[in-house]
């Protein structure tokens, strides 16, 4: 079993992807653990000296000026978690909740949060034992941190929430009792250390990024099948064309398209059948390449946040002097912008895919292919309504792609008067990913059928391999059937591929 070593500074999206693929465990570096101990010592000194510090010796939000009796510091933290655990709606996926715990642990290891070693150990234990909190996905404003989602995470640690364990949903306390593990006893500052942060939006963003990038690569071979079924022109993919545009992602897509189409007997050169193709074929490097530009931007911002101290207050030590500062690193605006941007990049992959598959089924556009690729046009509808389904999904994506980050609403009696809505961007973004994957699954099914009608033996060697692989998932259309089953089967296979290829 592989081990993911956490140090609070070097975690990457590739690390997370491999962790999920290989069912890894997490380990903590000695240096990171020392930082945790030092920051906790500062909290203990604050308590001993009876200093007034937000969230340690005072209340929260509008109650930041209310001093708390020292005998109630621990109770304050438990009350915080209980009162803030008011998430609603469907829960995040188990993958997202697991990544959320990893990211929260990694943040604590930076040594600016004042958490105890016991808290760090409890998080590590939950991750490695796959005790995964049930975390409702709605209810976060994306500033002051993902308060509601992270409170549900924290509830599980203290034995008051619900969890997924061994494929069952049950009470956290029951699982802990089964394993002979004690619930965490929260100490001063630790409630805040757990819930002030952006781990809900960032964790969902990481999963969305992993699957979006993979969809970008999948879209290329699927488009290559469509290109061949329509006898597309390869000249538009020549390196010289893209080199003079300067965008590296565009150059890379064009190179991969040339590789997918190499030695095909179905492609054409300009002037053989027509002078130029429609944009959805001719401009694949420009359109897909722009999406990869988005993915690269999003990856950079996510990885910065994954290794950030984003709770409040933060503890520092410089020149043998320690100090605590209340700031706003929990504000999700940088990630909200990034995830809204991701929505555009993945939406466009679906938009252009739907336009390509429309060309495959439209008898006015598909050359000599039968209308809707029907085995008996008129008696059987073939792929007619699959195009409807794809059109519906891309239209839905257009509404989901509206930026959540342009909105804000005040909270905590106007103390918290600007919020990011980054978690809304994250949730809508993953819905777009799922919609886009289904659109590409539909193009895949239709392109497989069209390629078969044109002659599988004429496909390029690389796309012939994909044809054989996916024909095991979805059979040829020899008669009308319940195509939704095919769509879901291909969709699931495409999703699994995001982790299978690691």
Plain-language structure description:
- By secondary structure, the protein is mainly alpha-helical.
- The chain folds into two domains: 195 residues, Orthogonal Bundle (Fumarase C, Chain B, domain 1), CATH 1.10.275; 294 residues, Fumarase/aspartase (Central domain) (Fumarase C, Chain A, domain 2, Up-down Bundle), CATH 1.20.200.10.
- It has 18 helices and nine strands.
- The strands form four sheets. A three-stranded antiparallel beta sheet has the order 4-6-7. A two-stranded parallel ribbon has the order 1-2.
- The relative contact order is 0.12.
Helix content: 55-70%
Measured between the Cα atoms of the first and last residue, the distance is 15 Å
CATH topology of the largest domain: Fumarase C, Chain A, domain 2
The ordered string of helix (H) and strand (E) elements is EHEHHEHHEEHEEHHHHHHHEEHHHHH
In DSSP terms (H or I, runs of 4 or more residues), the helix count works out at: 18
Strand content: 5-15%
> What's the architecture of the largest domain in CATH terms?
Up-down Bundle
The largest sheet has its strands arranged as: 4-6-7
